[in-house]
Fold this sequence. Notes:
By secondary structure, chain A is mainly beta. Chain A has helices spanning 21-32, 35-40, 108-119, and strands spanning 2-3, 7-8, 43-52, 57-66, 70-77, 80-86, 91-94, 104-105, 134-143, 146-154, 160-165, 172-181, 184-198, 201-211, 218-227.
Amino acid sequence: MLRTIAALLALATPTAFAYTAAELxxxxxxxxxxxxxxxxxxxxxxAGTLRINGxxxxxxxVTLVKRPHSIxxxxxxxxxxxxxxxxxxxxxxxxxxQGRKDPERMSSDDAKGFAEDAQDxxxxxxxxxxxxxxxDYLGTEDIDGTEAHKLRVTRPNGDITYVYLDPDAFLEIxxxxxxxxxxxxxxxxxxxxxxxxxxxxxxxxxxxFWTKGSSDHQKIQFDKxxxxxxxxxTEFQFPASRPATPAK
Amino acid sequence: xxxxxxxxVCALSCAAVAATPAPAPAxxxxxxVISGLGARNIGSAAMSGRIAALAGFADPSGKVTLxxxxxxxxxxxxxxxxxxxxxxxxxxxxxxxxxxxxxPSNHNNVWVGTGETWTRNSVSVGNGIxxxxxxxxxxxxxxxxxxxxISRISVDPRSSDTxxxxxxxxxxxxxxxxxxxxxxxxxxxxxxxxxxxxxxxxCADVARQPGSPDVLLASLWDFRRKGWTFRSGGDGPKAFSGxxxxxxxxxxxxxxxxxxxxxKGLPAKPYGRIALAYAPSEPQTVYAFIESTDSALFISHDxxxxxERGDKSSWMVWRPFYFANLIVDPKDxxxxxxxxxxxxxxxxxxxSFSTIGGFHGMHGDVHDVLVDPSNxxxxxxxxxxxxxxxxxxxxxxxxxxxxxxxxxxxVSLDNQDPYRVYGGLQDNASWVGESAYPGGITxxxxxxxxxxxxxxxxxxxxxxxxxxxxxxxGTIGRVNRHTHELRDIQPRxxxxxxxxxxxxxFNWNTxxxxxxxxxxxxxxxxxxxxxxxxxxxxxDRISPDLTTNDPQKQKQEESGxxxxxxxxxxxxTTIYSISESPVSAALIxxxxxxxxxxxxxxxxxxxxxxxxxxxxxxxxxxxNWVEAGRYxxxxxxxxxxxxxxxxxxxxxxxxxxxxKTWNALVDGKDTKGVRGYAHVIKEDPVxxxxxxxGTEFGLWISSDAxxxxxxxxGGHLPxxxxxxxxxxxxxxxxxxxxxxxxxxxxxxxxxxRHLTPQLTTQDAVFMxxxxxxxxxxxxxxxxxxxxxxxGDNPQDGAVITYYxxxxxxxxxxxxxxxxxxxxxxxxxxxxxxxxxxxxxxxxHRAAPHVPPAVQLxxxxxxxxxxxxxxxxxxxxxxxxxxxxxxxxxxxxxxTWTVAGRQAQYDAAMKVYNLFNDESVLFxxxxxxxxxxxxxxxGRPDKDPLHKRLGELDDKLDALRKRIxxxxxxxxxxxxxxxxEHTDQLYGALNSWEGPPGQYQLDNxxxxxxxxxxxxxxxxxxxTAELPALNKALTGKGxxxxxxxxxxxxxxxxxxxxxxxxxxxxxxxxxxxxDVARLKSLRLWN
Lengths: 248, 1085
């Protein structure tokens, strides 16, 4: 016996969001100070501390960013300085803690995070179209008691960043970077706080990040932020000789 | 502005309460306020939990992506063939999984049907179908919200939007929302295309013919569970059943029933549950397991037109409602898996089967199998004990140790330090585990103590060598925790009682209670309440039958439907909850599964059934929990559960007058935001206003005696059933027994006791906490690899808790710790969330200044731990400052005194200062050499002064090399100088916080003498040579050399002195691991 049953269930109503992804990106840029002020920052020097290993180990940290794609971080402990840098094409590092100060090239996968950080140092939503990113708004999600706007940023290489915006300030309170590294996805969660204006642009001076599923959090606390500092290209490039000069 | 909260928040808020009139009632807390306390999951993954569904695919390289659907613990995804998993469904409102399907034409599309369909008595519920278009990273509810459970999803390989969802529907009640649904628009709308003959018949399975996606088979299933019975099929082997087999040839739009009359070889109806599977490599071959009065496997080689009877061995036909699943090898049509208590496999097309897994070599009770399509020898199986992997075609199995989806029924705690956690689990026996252990809580920190399904478990309060544990049906045992000697002490009937009562009726989950007054007294409930005061040597029956004793609910021997199934799971009219009052030993409460709520005030001589006083509550509501109040004898709480009648509403009541009147804390009229039927309600042991409520969908907390409730989501606790909870009274930890995600611990709930309305209106305030101990900084653990779950320990240090009304987004928020002199010892990165926040102070002072060398001095990367005492915590928040004292004490377990601890600290500080002084001397040497280099800059080699300066430089460098190792290159040079010796001593002194040994103190003096000798050499050298050199330099018009002042070589305020815990660094193994950590340091996100 053929049965034709045409009972329709209640239709799932298409989700209606208060904002589009583009609107939220615009609000995020405006909240930071506007695109003109953001663009006016050509370089940024941040100095503070990095805590790791369950807060038991503290290093002095200096991070230097320069448009369009350069970033360098120097972390110092007992006058030994770890350097990690990216010059827009390749990343390298020096890790002297076991007595070796020769610069070492980082694999392209290990460099991915640096490349993204260099490109997105003012936020993944800023100039997302120029950067070739695709944005999707995924509604709101509870982030530690804040019902945050959630956006998915898809990069041309397929890597994804989930951006969570404070519903009132429209600034990032959390990102989750999902990068394919060595053939497998790795996820890093970063929380942001201590927003302060640097040359008219809100910059988060505290960041806490950890690998998803791990309880080992790294914490960065910047105390000084200077925009448009002098930054030579050579500071980001693989050194011709060792040791590299720490960023000042 | 400066705001000083002089002592604890209690002092502050209590004063405020006294000074101001009570405000109008308002929600004191919400989820965002309380969840900042966090929570940690301690597993275990050793006794993992039931897995209901598997799905996966292999990429061209052979790498397997795997989705695991837990019966009540969400969806877990692995992209590395089960080495690691992450939960991907935790943000969703339900955690019970029935089906997972990956779109065959686009692996990014993943469908999840919620609501498990292995419908045992303890099964949870779902709320529809979910869809992911990004490989399971994010999910959208895609309809069928009233389905409750979904058994299979089939996506048309030609069209990702064309989907069939097989919905058995509600287990406990009639419902029209069941059958086979079809969507042609990716889940936006659904059409019911195959409907059962009655409101208890839904869809059990659907299978699509490979290569002919319009051709499908589906089975309908008539089933129903009640508290006292279950049927798969009709009410008995001869009763009508809506179950049947159906065929579609138009992609599922229309269906025709396939019967013995139309398809030769099928068994006679009535049917129960039917499982279906086509052979991917032979599309005309299809297998059907059909539950009937003659259950068997049926095989068709013509696409289902005709059938032949295949295997009907024990494991083929056992418990069809729980094990109806067939999986065919993707490359070999004759290789068929049938899930059951054992996993069985046919290699001859279904004619015979071999046992290849189950109760030997696996846990047993297998529910799903996934065969790696790229390598059929690679097989995954999910059973009641977790996930198993075979690499040899399902002969031998690896047990995964990374899915903490254990299903606890109950939890209890002892008073060891750290305390231990006891509990029983669904089909996974009874275990005791550590609440903390150096290195983390691995599977090896849990120990099995009993068998069967596990439920209540208690440490014997009167004998620390023994535990009580139980298996299903009240099989209680007293077990020696060391020898595992076991004594079955279940009460039994004597001759007269046997004649009179026939049997004792013990629930599947029989309650056991330990008296809060008499350590040797325990209770167990059948239909009667039994009490033993001698560890089960004798039992006193202290009640009449406390249940309704309804004979209509005592026909378990008829349970099962088409196939008899009477496993004790349906035993009814039993006692289900027992609570002896902490106020009065003679006051005992009992709740029954058939709705009686009984109380005695004279130790069992007289009982009153007071359930009739609970107005508005439907009769016969299951009493999931009754709890005598701690603060007043007349107070009791009761949680009623009507989900076995199809009502998922929480019902929680309180009485203040021994049950004469009851007030609803949560009920159908006002759930107050609480979701899910209630399992457990408990008072906090300190604050009468603080209540904890566990439901099928999580934990809710009230800080105003039940007037308002807030869901606790700390630590990303998902919407998993919280079936029991316990507060450790010494440590103030709240421990949750979840049925699907193991044990969770909320460390130190003291702050919840102080969340008053006055407090929560403040911008920021420090919260009271338990006393801070300096817990032993112990070593432990061992590399377990990425495939092992390790439960987190409590945070190691002083946990500072504060409340802030809103998230701190702009401007600095800092937490400083100051000593008694007002010196800032540390400045901590603050947590910025709304509500309660926690930050950790490790209690270590800043690292010493260490003279730089070619490698780190690892012990010297951290300062000594400060001695016990009173410190000040200061919060800098915008332009406001808040302060609170922080008292630090010794670990309760240590053998030394505060004076001994001070001696250790003083010794460590001597070495700390030695480091600093080495650093100062090093700085002077380096500074002088820099001047020499400058003086020699451009000076011709022939210039005699060049040679003299060079000679001085060589002598200074020789002094430097007495202080630090200088061989570069990254190898293990073994080079040791003063700094390295200092580091070794420093590490040794910090490895143990008791009084140092004299040999260590002697070594301090020896190293100090060595430094003095080098320093003396420096002084002599500069005294002897600088005057003449400076005269010569002056003669050349050059700048004179100046002995640098005695300051550290680096900036006093610069960070970078911190480091790993000094004493924990073994010169070999651990040092290497810490180096590895530093080598993998990532300086940006």
